[in-house]
Give the backbone structure.
Amino acid sequence: MPDLDLILCPVGGGGVLSGTAVAAKSLRPGIKVIATEPAGADDAAQSFHEHRLVNQEQKNTIADGLRTDLGAPNFALIQRYVDDVVTVSDESIIAAMRAIWETMKIVVEPSGAVPYGAVTEGKVDCRSKRVGIILTGGNVDLDSLPWMKF
């Protein structure tokens, strides 16, 4: 997508994020790349803001695909190419997942809905910007959607 001002990408182990950031900044140096992460599994946010790799023992989030540990090689690229890392509540992740399903008709797992959750939670200012959102993964158990009432 040409002329983006901002890309939002989920982060777990950092592979998708670091690849996205390197490619985006190589093609468009002025673009902003912001990583989004569940608040209950925020080792990337802690690492980014403390400028050192932080390991997190307990990760508590519905976004099970982002419960992985941030890798050292990816962290080095993230420090160089990513502009910020923000965290999102599980409640916002679930609401974002449902909104994506309902409005875009895209099956997205909780991990992939985190970037949109950052927008709806107001963690990223998207006003007057062309924004790309990385929607990853469709691994969902349709019998246990997080917004269903049993």
Observations:
- The radius of gyration is 15 Å.
